[in-house]
Design goal:
Subcellular location: Cell inner membrane; Cell membrane
InterPro entries: ATP_synth_b/b'su_bac/chlpt, ATP_synthase_B_chain
Order of helices and strands: HHH
Largest sheet: none
Structural class: mainly alpha
Number of strands: 0
GO molecular function: proton-transporting ATP synthase activity, rotational mechanism; proton-transporting ATPase activity, rotational mechanism
Organism: Paenochrobactrum gallinarii
Keywords: ATP synthesis, Cell membrane, CF(0), Coiled coil, Hydrogen ion transport, Ion transport, Membrane, Transmembrane, Transmembrane helix, Transport
Number of domains: 1
Number of helices: 3
Strand content: under 5%
C-alpha cells in the first residue's frame, strides 16, 4: 500500500464526515441566506432609488414653480414700477401746470397792481396839476362859486 492509497482513503473518510455532518447543506443554506440577504438589499436599494427619483422629480417641479413665481414677481414689479413712473410723471406735469397757473396769476396780479399804482400816481399828478392851475387862475371869489357849483353837481349826481 502506498501513500496514494492512504491519501484516497483519508479523502473518502473526510468526504464521508463532511456529508455526515451535513456540511454541504449548511454551505447551501449559508449561500441561500446570503443570496436572500443580497436580494433584500437590492430590493431596498431599488426602493430607495425610486424614492430618490420621486424626490428629485418633486424638487424639479418645485424649482420650476419657484422660477415661474419669481418671474411673475419680477413682471409684477416691473408693471408696478412702470405704473409708479407714469403716476410720478402725471403728478409732476400737474404740479408744473399748477405752478405755471399760479405764476401767471401772480404776474397778472402784479400787472394789475402796477396799472393801479400808475393810475393812482397819474390821478394824483393830475389833481396836483389841476390844483396848481386852478389856484393860479382862480381867485377867492371864483373859487367859492366853483366850489358851490361842484357841490351842486355832486348832490345832483348822488341823488
Amino acid at each position: 500500500m502506498d501513500a496514494t492509497f492512504w491519501a484516497l482513503v483519508g479523502l473518502v473518510i473526510f468526504l464521508g464526515i463532511v456529508v455526515y455532518l451535513k456540511v454541504p447543506g449548511m454551505v447551501a443554506k449559508s449561500l441561500d441566506e446570503r443570496a436572500a440577504k443580497i436580494s433584500k438589499e437590492l430590493d431596498e436599494a431599488r426602493t430607495l432609488r425610486e424614492e430618490a427619483q420621486a424626490l428629485l422629480a418633486e424638487y424639479h417641479r418645485k424649482r420650476k414653480e419657484a422660477e415661474k413665481e419669481a418671474s411673475d414677481i419680477v413682471a409684477a414689479a416691473g408693471r408696478e414700477a412702470n405704473a409708479i413712473v407714469d403716476d410720478a410723471k402725471q403728478k409732476t406735469e400737474e404740479y408744473v401746470a399748477r405752478r405755471n397757473k399760479l405764476a401767471e396769476q401772480k404776474i397778472a396780479s402784479a400787472e394789475a397792481e402796477a396799472i393801479k399804482e400808475v393810475r393812482t400816481a397819474a390821478v394824483e399828478l393830475a389833481v396836483a396839476a389841476a390844483t396848481r392851475i386852478v389856484a393860479d387862475k382862480v381867485d377867492a371869489k371864483a373859487s367859492a362859486t366853483f366850489f358851490k357849483d361842484s357841490l351842486e353837481q355832486v348832490k345832483s349826481r348822488l341823488n
